[in-house]
Amino acid sequence: MNPSFQAADELASLSIMVIIPALNEQECIEKVVGAVPQWVRRIIVVDNGSTDDTPGRAAAAGAQVVREPRRGYGRACLTGCAAATDADIIVFLDGDLSDYPERMEQLVRPIAEDHADFVIGSRTRGAREAGALLPQQRFGGWLACVLIRLFWGYRYTDLGPFRAIRIASLNRLRMDDQNFGWTVQMQVRAVVAGLRIMEIPVDYRRRIGKSKISGTLRGVLGAGSKILYSIGREVCVARHRVRLGHPSPESWRAGLLDDVRRIAIPASLIGPARVVEVDAKYRPLPRWPDRQAFGVRNL
C-alpha cells in the first residue's frame, strides 16, 4: 500500500474535526474548506457575524456552518468546540487562506501517534511569503512569547492560529477567553496543565483580503492590549491557585476582586493621607526564577 494512503487510513480511524472561525471571508472560504484533507471527519465553519456570503459559500463547499453572532475570535472558537461533538482531535484554522490546510497532517500526526497533546504551527520557524507577517504581528508575537517564558518558563516561538489539540487535553484547559487572547490563553494553560507541547514549522502566505486585526491601527492596538491583558489575567489565576489552593477557574473568580482590593499601591501614587490595607495572608509575587509558584509543572 502507498504510504500516503496508509497514513490517511490511520488518521481516518480517528474523529478529527476542523474549526474555522470566519468573518467576511467569502473570497476565500471555499478554497480553505476545499483544501482540508479528506480524512477529516467534519469541518465546522463558525460564522462570526458576516455581512457577506461567507456562510453560504462555506456550506456549498461541504462545511457545517454554525452561527455565532456575538463578535470575538474566542467566542467563535468556543462555539465551534461546542459543536465538535465526539471529536478526538480538534484543529483550529483561520479562514483567510494564509495557512496551508492540505499540510494539516504534520500537526495532527504527533497527537495521533501519542507523541504530543498539543501541536502549534510556528510561522516564525517556517517559510513566509513576503508581507505575510507584518512587523507589528512579529513584534506582538515575540513580546507575548517573551512574557510567557518569563512567567512560566516555557519557550514558544509563535502564537500561530493553525494548531491541533487532543479534545481531552482541551477540556482540561477550561478555555474561556472570548476575544484575541484565545491563542495565548491556550498556550499558557497548556504549560500550567503539563501538556506535552510541540511546535512544528509551518509555511505562511499573504492572506486574501484585508486583515481585521493587522490591517488597521485600531485592530493592532485592540489585539495587542487583549493579549497582554490575557497574560496578566493568567498570572492572577496562577497566584490564586497557589496561594488559596483553588483547583479550577470557578473557584478563583470569587476571590479575584478581593485580591484586587488588597493590592499594595506605592505611597507616592496615593499620597500620605490615604492608607491601603494589605492582607497578611497574601504573600507577594515570587521572584524569578521561582516558576513553580506560577503553576508550572512537568516541564
Overall description:
By secondary structure, this protein is α/β, with parallel strands linked by helices. The chain has one domain (8-235): Alpha-Beta Complex (Spore Coat Polysaccharide Biosynthesis Protein SpsA, Chain A), CATH 3.90.550. 41% of the residues lie in helices and 12% in strands. It has eleven helices and seven strands. The protein has helices at residues 3-12, 29-35, 54-60, 73-83, 105-112, 135-152, 167-173, 182-192, 217-244, 249-261, 267-270, and strands at residues 16-22, 42-47, 64-67, 89-92, 118-122, 163-166, 197-201. Strands 3-2-1-4-6-5-7 form a seven-stranded mixed beta sheet, with helices on both faces. Helix 3 (54-60) links the parallel strand 2 and strand 3 (64-67). Helix 6 (135-152) runs parallel beside helix 9.
Question: What's this entry about, in short?
Answer:
This protein is α/β, with parallel strands linked by helices and 299 residues long. The protein has helices at residues 3-12, 29-35, 54-60, 73-83, 105-112, 135-152, 167-173, 182-192, 217-244, 249-261, 267-270; strands spanning 16-22, 42-47, 64-67, 89-92, 118-122, 163-166, 197-201. Strands 3-2-1-4-6-5-7 form a seven-stranded mixed β-sheet, sandwiched between helices.
